[in-house]
Amino acid sequence: MVIPIKFKRVQIPVAILVFTLFCGFSHANEVETKFIGAGLIDIKSVDDSIQVDLVNSDPRKNYFKENFYSGLEKAYLRKEVAIKLSLAQRILKQKHSDYSLLVLDAARPRSVSRAMYDKMKGTRFEKFVANPKKGSMHNYGIAVDLTIVDESGNEIDMGFNPFRKSTPELYWMYAKKMLGVKLTNTQKRNRKLLADVMKQAGFFPLSFEWWHFNGLPKSEARKRFKIIE
After folding, report:
1. Contact 88, 53 (CB under 8 A)
2. Contact 88, 204 (CB under 8 A)
3. For the chain, how far is it from start to end, CA to CA, in angstroms?
4. pTM, whole model, 2 decimals?
């Protein structure tokens, strides 16, 4: 009589685990399924205090006017990069307890990058989308686009960025940038705060995109991981 009881105790947790995994995949959309299949994790599973607003999942918030992620609201990264991001959040909180990181984009399938590049090609904003032929660090699941928000959820002033802007507003901001309109002292200070926090946590900045950070060197990412198609 003892053997059947032990057998059931072993089988029940296994059954629950299988069911849980099945449910996770069944409720994931196509993009999220790609991330999960590639071994990426939802950053909030590591640090729930990090705020997320995936602009490329909402046509009202990106330059392309497209829903590239089919409404996905979770940001996915490689686990080691998500852990670094959690460290960055803690460092930021130590400096400003009422501030938080706000993730605007994270892992991105190459198919999405290709669609973005096709729309940007030939425009003055082309350089802000990596050529998908080689693959961007977003396609490896190790890059994140982000900013800082205050206790009310408002973005602190960083100056020009391509997120959540109307087309006229975006072109006006870009024109001022090209005309040599300099950053204010507040904007410089805020950008430095973000860069310092991210670098202390082990991230690598991109010189012409203050919002973009890689969690690993490019060469290492290409060597260790496959592109998420």
Report:
1. no
2. no
3. 52
4. 0.82
Nearest to 138 by CA among 106, 161, 163: 106
The total number of structural domains that make up the chain: 1
CB 121 within 8 A of CB 202: no
Residues paired with 149 in a beta bridge: 100, 155
Residue 57 tokens read as 């999942």
Question: Helices (DSSP H) in the chain: which residue ranges?
Answer: 2-27, 30-37, 79-95, 110-120, 167-178, 185-200, 218-224
Q: In this structure, are residues 150 and 99 in contact, taking their beta carbons and an 8 Å threshold?
A: yes
Q: What is the mean pLDDT of each run of 10 residues along the chain (229 residues)?
A: 43 42 56 97 98 93 87 97 98 98 97 90 76 92 98 94 64 65 92 98 94 97 97
Look up the CATH number of the domain holding residue 94.
3.30.1380.10
Identify whether the C-beta of residue 56 lies closer than 8 Å to the C-beta of residue 62: yes
